[in-house]
Amino acid sequence: RMITVMKAIIILLLQLIIYYLFGSLLELLCRKKHGMVFKVISGFLTYQVIFQICALPMIKMDQTLTRLTILWLLIVAICCIWVGIRCRKRIMEDIGMVRNAFFRHKIWFLLMGIFLLVMCYYVSVNGEINDDSTYYIGLINTTLTSNRLYRFNAYTGEQVKSLYMRRALVTFDINTAVACQIYHIHPLVITRITRASLNVILSAGSVYLLGRTFLGKGKEAFWKAGVFTCLAMACNFLFDNTIYTSAAFLLHRAYEGKAYAGNVLILFTIYLCIEEIRKSDKWNYIYLAVTLWACIAISSTAILVTGAACVVLLTPALLQRMIKHRKQGKNYD
Known about the structure:
Layout: H1 2-30, H2 36-60, H3 65-86, H4 88-104, H5 106-125, H6 131-146, H7 165-168, H8 172-183, H9 187-214, H10 221-234, H11 246-252, H12 257-278, H13 282-298, H14 300-332
């Protein structure tokens, strides 16, 4: 059992490295520098978008999981090797920055690491077993055992008569099945440990980015944002009183797409919207587009939540800019 847990943790660390490289790929395309935390989160989203692009045609053509796994393994390997070579200088800068930050804030890194470790342990051992979890884990399991994509009922195992495209657009669980086949690990382990812990880490990263936005970018902003992150994440335990809060989803259903929607996706969307409100930049809209696209791949609920957040936050800002621009035009006339 301990070996299996260690394997799940190693997979988590490996996935974080892959997400960082995919984030570096997006950074290279956008030609705008970002920190390591931002790149890990944006890389996770880019990873899901590219996987959906690869998976949907194979789902539609009723290809096997094995073929999808081989295709995806090749794409990830090519992307990671190319980015590693192309962005090696920037990668070394990020490593140096993290190393210097660690030596300057050893205690903070230690406390933050312990805190995240405790939260990851909590969500891993306190996951609920309900209809939703039965569907998600059942879908991964039937995909692995049948070697087919969305062709069997996740609850009963019976073959479905037709492909339900709304479900097929959500390729998050298919991606987990691919990971199970690559790493030779059981669906329960990778969902309850790796995927749940990943949600905690990415959510903490999103909170940290918001903290840096609110608390400035001076020398003390690093540890201030860290304290803000710990306090904000700890508040989840105070709001775990009903099954409908984002805190309850994070603490007990962290491996579900809905839990990603209510935590990392909505938080990162809010961060991007705030950045756009503070300083308009076309690349903010590119990152928002990638985020919204990834939401479709992760959960059908996510696109509704993040889309609503974009409308609520950006509409007043856009209207204000339109009015200001119109007034400037009249003054010019």
